[in-house]
Amino acid sequence: MLEGRAARRTRTARPRSFLMCPPGHFDVTYSINPWMDPDRPTDGGRAVRQWDRLRNLYIGLGHTVEQIPAIPGLPDMVFAANGATVIDGQVLAARFRHAERAAEGPAYAGWLAERGYQVHQAQFVNEGEGDYLFTGRRILAGTGFRTDPRSHAEMQRVFSHPVVTLELVDPRYYHLDTALAVLDHDEIMYYPAAFSADSRALLSRLYPDAILAGDADAAAFGLNAVSDGRHVVLAEKATGLADQLCQHGFVPIGVDLSELMKSGGSAKCCTLELRAP
Ligand code: ARG
What we know:
Blueprint: E1 17-20, H1 44-60, E2 64-67, E3 84-87, E4 90-93, H2 104-114, E5 118-120, E6 132-134, E7 139-143, H3 150-159, E8 163-167, E9 180-184, E10 187-190, H4 197-206, E11 211-212, H5 215-219, E12 226-227, E13 231-235, H6 239-247, E14 251-255, H7 258-261, E15 272-273
Parallel strand pairs: 1-2, 4-5, 7-8, 10-11, 13-14
Antiparallel strand pairs: 1-15, 3-4, 6-7, 9-10, 12-13
Bound molecules: arginine.
Residues 32-33, 36, 76, 79, 81-82, 101, 130, 175, 177-178, 263-265, 269 line the site of arginine.
């Protein structure tokens, strides 16, 4: 019998394959987003412990986690989501906006090429899954701070999935994956205030049933989440979002990634999904 608003759906998890980079050289030595303050000390040991827990959590949920070695001098390389976009075994290599991160693109592209992925070099700036989120039928594409809007057409050419351009307007939410997460096919959660009025209208038309995050959950990086269709791994401080996810039949799992937050990243930023053909 239905109680209250609606019966809770039972969700099914699908095992995923992830690429992660250990935070062996993590630090905040420059500032390219409003969260980064190089004068605020980081705790490298703590970053490693927090990251290890995230990795072990994925493995415990039945996912595969591969690792790319960290490179000295690339303190943001831990944010694997930015390293590339991988769909159907095809890769669009990342091309970073800032010189400080430029060498990460070839590092990730090389790792993927060595493992048999077909890598397409990018003509325009794009920061991988930071700004490209695949829903299963379309690619949601962020722009405004990092990824060049001209990259969106390039994306569509490489992957032959429709690309939907979304414009970010709040510098705290500089990558799409800080303001929006894909929960399951055609189900998303997002923070409306991070988007331009046109993009907000588009999102509410495409996803009328989306979960909407409030200011506090967004600022806790709750949208920087990784879903396997059932479990949603997100910042533990995003308790309002966790409640909403439960109401929709998902199983939220809170994680503490406070050290990585000092660089403006959380769970999703540390996680690149490898989608085989
Ligand atoms: N400090 C990094 C930067 O500003 C953080 C990247 C976070 N990654 C992400 N996928 N949002 O580029």
